[in-house]
Amino acid sequence: MSVLFGRSERRTATAPWSSGGSSRGAWRSLSGEKVTFSTVIGLDAVAAVVGLICDVVYMLPLATYRDEGGVPVRLPSPPLVAEPSGTIDPRAWRAQAVMSWMLWGNAYGLITSRDSRQRVTGVDWLNPEWVDVDEPWGVLGPATYRLNGREIAEDQLLHLPGRYVRTGYRQGLVPLERFRETFGLAAAARNYGARWFGEGAHPSAILQTKEPVSAEQAATIKERFLAAVRGRREPAVLGAGVQYTSVQEGPEQSQLVASQQHAAVAVARALGLLQPEMIGAAIAGSSVTYANREQRAIDFLTFSADPYLVRLEDAITRQLATAQGGSTPETGQYVRLTRDALLRTDTKSRYEAHEVAIRSGWRTPNEVRRLEDEQPLAEGGDRTNWPPFAVTPAKETS
Questions:
Q1: Helix H or strand E segment including 161
Q2: How many CA atoms lie within 13 A of 333 on its CB side?
């Protein structure tokens, strides 16, 4: 291989974790802030974006279908959909996978059960910090997986790479490392703001005199001044030619607010949220009104949430159709997250949409009633209006 490719290249999933001499799962940013999972998830912008995407994944129902001649037929949920883990509920299980993608770039799951055809039926997600992957030749050679330092067989692990996968390799790039400067800047702005209110960020004033003073005298002047003003609003009498000069700037002068706002927008972009106003991070010149709220929800679903939703659907579908040692797509099973649950509109618009669906023959009355959690009609509720009619038909007469 060295002859064909010039030189060998070694890539390990833990290489970014140990770059620059830092410990695994920790990176030092140019701002001086240490970037780890614990510090990053404590940033309000990160928590808001990750929480928003994961909450969407949690809320959307997941259903299983089979394609029969181009017609989707709803199937009972298989174990990997209904109960993939013995420790957490299925919705939280799906949200865990997405969180691993968002911050670690990879989701690693320990396979806990298979069916008679060796298809995966149970998986417990692992903390990505526990897993090391060594793939010196990328897809051209085997990969070695280690769980807490001990080698584990590849068929015991379910590995799902995230959004950023370097060409020629299995592993997804780690956003915590890839965007460490973005996260580091956000942490620095947050910590500076905390110190501003806790410590003043720098001396709030100067006590000065033209008279020479010793260190002991300076300490005495400072102590007496603090004793005079602490907890009071009375004027302080300094004497001895001592003058008080304030040097504290306001948050506006220090651009603290602007820095924090910029950091929040940058974090949102790094994590794939293209609508930062959804987490309260405004962009200059942008405005959100009631009139464009529905379109904003559609944009969020299409450009921010869907990249994760589609990956999740494809990953589960692959497991439903794949037996150990080869693909068996003849089952035709696939899963879909019901996105309509995210696009709820106002009552009037929703009812108008239902009416159009019934009139056009696209839905039956009972299908619409199920969407509204209503009991089905006993008679005629499952009849499709086909061919579609433009107006309500006259009542049949005998």
A1: strand 157-161
A2: 20
CA distance 144 to 133: 6
Rounded CA-CA distance 278/265 in Å is 10
Q: At what angle do helices 44-59 and 180-199 cross, to 10 degrees?
A: 120
Q: Are 11 and 138 in contact (CB under 8 A)?
A: yes
- Output the six-digit token pair for 259: 């820095």
Q: Tell me the two tokens of residue 251.
A: 């948050």
Cα–Cα dist 163/315, whole Å: 13
**Which residue, among 120, 109, 84, 91, has the nearest Cα to 161 in the 3D structure?**
109
Q: Can you give the pTM of this predicted structure?
A: 0.73
Position 20 scores a pLDDT of 32
Nearest to 129 by CA among 147, 150, 117, 143: 147
Question: Counting Cβ atoms within 10 Å, is residue 50 exposed (0-12), middle (13-18) or buried (19+)?
Answer: buried
- Which regions of the chain are under pLDDT 50? 1-23, 201, 253, 291, 325-330
List Cα–Cα distances, 328 to 75, 84, 167, 356, in angstroms.
18, 20, 27, 40
Which of 279, 101, 98, 276 is CA-nearest to residue 175? 101
pLDDT score recorded for residue 239 = 63
Only one residue has tokens 């692959």, namely: 318
Q: What is the DSSP annotation of 168-208?
A: T-SSBP-HHHHTHHHHHHHHHHHHHHHHHHHH-SS-SEEEE
Tens digit of pLDDT for each residue in 14-47? 333 333 333 468 899 999 999 999 999 999 999 9
Angstrom distance (rounded) from CA 313 to CA 60: 12
Structure tokens at 230: 């602490």
Q: Residue 344: its pLDDT value, please?
A: 63
Residues near 370 by Cβ (< 8 Å), separated by ≥ 6? 376
CA distance 43 to 29: 15
Q: Give the per-residue pLDDT at 189.
A: 87
Rounded-to-integer distance, Cα 77 and Cα 62, Å:
9
| Nearest residue to 355 via CA among 368, 374, 339, 345 | 368
Pairing label, strands 62-68, 34-36: unpaired
Classified as helix, coil or strand, 130 is helix
